[in-house]
From TrEMBL:
Signal peptide: 1-27
One Pfam family this sequence matches: GFO_IDH_MocA
GO molecular function, one term: nucleotide binding
Residue ranges of domain Gfo/Idh/MocA-like oxidoreductase N-terminal in the record: 89-162
InterPro entries in the record: Gfo/Idh/MocA-like_OxRdtase_N (IPR000683), NAD(P)-bd_dom_sf (IPR036291)
Alphabetic keyword roster: Signal
Stated name of the protein: Gfo/Idh/MocA-like oxidoreductase N-terminal domain-containing protein
Organism: Prosthecobacter dejongeii
Domain of life, per lineage: Bacteria
Length: 348
């Protein structure tokens, strides 16, 4: 009788442990699938997960399956698909499958890494059918309308996901963002923003310095003005409290350029970014998210960042007139509850 009671107690403890810590127990066996093998991210993420000998190895997960994808009309995509596919298959043992549905059936979570933002909405809809959590690489989509549609579809399906630039977790960016406990009075972020067909002109590499800017400034951007030339664009956002955040997008620098920097102006002084980073901190956040299903970046902040970029495009077409983020999000179909605050009406 005592032995049976002991066995029952032990089984109950194990069951409760499994209920309370399901993600930690599954962490060592987390299977990840990739959608889109046309970006260096697919190779860089896989080597960190699948190669225990790599100095940046992240334990707890492994890429086991992938869908090739690719965009034939985008040279930056078409020229790299075959090489990355071969590397993942032959070097890292990733199974290459013919459909997104097949990939989802073999994994616990998905990373959509397609370079081109145009197919992201369709790819997300296929992943949502599986109910698996997913990371969506930048740009979230090729239009703000599609970005809003992705968030709406994920909310309806009750499937968690997030999207973010790796720069958000660069040690140098975090050091600047946390330099003071009070909000930054202003900040300047610069970096490459080469133009790529079929997308708003700041969506590609412009997302990196823009996300670094928002990492410092936080949410609450009200409106945007842009001054542009063939070589560069200066985008100034006005935040609540009359704080100013400036993005200096350098169109002359190529994709892959390491020329990024962030400067924070605070109550106590000025702090400049001293060092860069790599994909490792972002990938740690992705794995942690797959284990906990708690996104490290909110929908509100991601939508605000892309609304900032969209408003900048509209301001350029209107010769630098201010464009409210609420307006661009509303036109893109965002629900009223998702809109940022309205700019205050100046007192007469």
């Amino acid at each position: 009788m005592a032995a049976r009671h002991l066995r029952f107690t032990f089984a109950l403890i194990m069951a409760l442990t499994a209920m309370l810590t399901p993600h930690s127990l599954m962490a060592e066996n987390l299977r990840i699938g990739i959608v889109g093998l046309d970006s260096s991210h697919c190779e860089q993420f896989t080597l960190r997960l699948n190669d225990p000998a790599n100095p940046s190895h992240i334990p707890g997960a492994r890429v086991v399956a992938a869908y090739v994808g690719g965009s034939p009309d985008l040279p930056e995509s078409a020229s790299r698909v075959q090489g990355f596919t071969t590397t993942l298959k032959d070097k890292y043992g990733v199974q290459i499958l013919g459909t997104i549905t097949e990939v989802c059936a073999k994994v616990d979570a998905v990373m959509i890494l397609s370079l081109d933002g145009r197919p992201h909405l369709a790819q997300v809809r296929e992943v949502l059918l599986s109910g698996k959590p997913f990371f969506l690489d930048k740009p979230v989509a090729a239009s703000l309308k599609d970005i809003v549609a992705i968030y709406q579809a994920a909310e309806e399906a009750k499937v968690p996901f997030f999207s973010a630039s790796a720069m958000r977790w660069y040690p140098g960016v975090i050091e600047v963002a946390t330099a003071e406990s009070t909000p930054a009075l202003a900040a300047i972020s610069y970096g490459p923003s080469p133009l790529l067909p079929f997308h708003p002109d700041l969506y590609f590499y412009g997302i990196h310095p823009a996300e670094a800017l928002f990492t410092v400034m936080g949410t609450g951007c009200l409106e945007v003005r842009r001054t542009a030339s063939p070589n560069a664009s200066v985008v100034t956002g006005r935040w609540e409290g009359d704080r100013l955040g400036t993005l200096h997008a350098i169109h002359a620098l190529p994709m892959g350029s390491a020329h990024y920097k962030l400067t924070r102006f605070g109550e106590k002084g000025v702090v400049e970014q001293k060092n860069q980073g790599d994909y490792t901190p972002l990938l740690r956040e992705i794995v942690k998210f797959f284990q906990t299903r708690q996104p490290p970046v909110s929908r509100a902040q991601t939508l605000e960042i892309y609304a900032f970029l969209e408003a900048a495009e509209q301001s350029r077409s209107q010769n630098g007139k201010p464009v409210a983020l609420r307006d661009v999000l509303r036109k893109a179909g965002a629900p009223e509850a998702w809109l940022p605050p309205a700019p205050a009406v100046p007192k007469s």
